[in-house]
Design a protein that fits this description.
This protein is mainly alpha-helical. The protein has 6 helices and 2 strands, in the order E-H-H-E-H-H-H-H.
Length: 94
Amino acid sequence: MPAAEQQCALCGSRTLLTFHHLIPRTLHRNKWFRKNFELTDMRERGIVVCRRCHSFIHRQFDEKQLGREFNTLAKLLANEAVVRHSQWSKKHRH
């Protein structure tokens, strides 16, 4: 998707977008993750989010939680805290 069309996967913002690895890079060499995911999948599995949402995700969950429990956009969006943050962020666009 062209950069001009991209928006935050959580709040819809179009400013200061970053790539969030759904399986954190620090876990790519971890034995459990190498056993359960292909390396290319771990590298490519991610979403585009704004800086505010990206920071929120990493404050809310530790790396192993992200990799094991929140490794898809659907799983992130099923979390009540993420939904509340997304709704708040939509109202307070940056």
